[in-house]
Amino acid sequence: MQRVFSGIQPTGVPQLGNYLGAIRNWVRLQDDHDCVFCLVDMHALTVFREPEQLRRDNLAQAACLIASGINPEKHVLYNQSAVSAHARLGWIFNCVVRLGWLNRMTQFKEKAGKDREQHSAGLFVYPALMAADIHTFHATRVPVGEDQKQHLEIANDIAAKFNHDYGVAFFPAIEALIPPSAARVMSLRDGTKKMSKSDPSAQSRIELTDTADDIALKIRKAKSDTEALPSESAGLEGRAEARNLVTIYAAMADQSADDVLGRFGGQGFGPFKSALAELLVEKLAPVADETRRLLEDRTHLEQILRQGAARANAIAEPIVTEAERLVGYLR
Ligand code: ATP
Ligand code: MG
After folding, report:
1. Whole-angstrom Cα distance, residue 256 to residue 74?
2. Which CATH architecture has domain 3-183+298-327?
3. Atom number, ligand 1, closest to the C-alpha of residue 196
4. Distance 40 CA to ligand 2 centre (A)
5. Does residue 74 have an active-site annotation?
6. I need a labelling partner for 301 at 20 to 30 A (CA). Which of 58, 79, 204, 291 fits?
7. What is the pTM of this model?
8. Is 194 a catalytic residue?
């Protein structure tokens, strides 16, 4: 059975883009893959976070994943920092990756903005740690949103260079599993920016724990335009916000954009937005309710993560130990 590795940063409550681009596919992959789901708290540290906030976000993230259908009994769910293999292989990969490769990473440029010099070195070398996250499990399939495509390419380049430099075929090639639709859900306030957990504006995203009122308000206020909806998807060209809302509806309803426009084409955004809010509430309310229920028992969640870490460690330790032997560490 092929192994899947997936990570999500505990940098806030999962948002709709995480759900459609990643989490929903993780749930589906559980049927026929051996899955490792990781709360990547070491990555979350690349931008300063209050320690108590990080702990809270970790637990909320775990609760949200379980509520979305991740099964921590059958698969592995744990915190990155609890398994030392990540840091150890991450360091080796820091020494394999080339600065020129890291300089080409668009996510660093987007996150760092203009004041590049003021950001942590961790944010810059993030892709090497992400490569280590995957390769320390010898995972071959990685379900991600489109924004992570470049990071998976560099993960393959790093592994290939390691294999070449040390003359072994140790790390396998990995395949990105990017969903055919809603692979890049955009901000509700700006159709050119991706929806993110860490966007300062809470209005820009739907969070999986939002109440029905929150969802209705955010969708009502979501940026759109003044034209009626087109009757087919070709008419969404150049209308980023309209395209985003139609894409969200289609993904949540498991329909094509053309089906959605067959129903709403020719109408203004009013009735469409009401139907979209209703659909989101119907699908997300059970996740929000279950997340809240799980968060009432913090001890139980911590226990799930501890057990997950022990199982993750059992898989990763022999692989990282062999990588350490290959590079020449003395034991
Ligand atoms: P942050 O703003 O802290 O980077 P994020 O919302 O980008 O948070 P991540 O934890 O970085 O979330 O990513 C978790 C997973 O969700 C990744 O697989 C990523 O590709 C996917 N993802 C993130 N945002 C979107 C989006 N807007 N559309 C589709 N997939 C997304
Ligand atoms: Mg991100």
Report:
1. 32
2. 3-Layer(aba) Sandwich (3.40)
3. 6
4. 11
5. no
6. 204
7. 0.96
8. yes
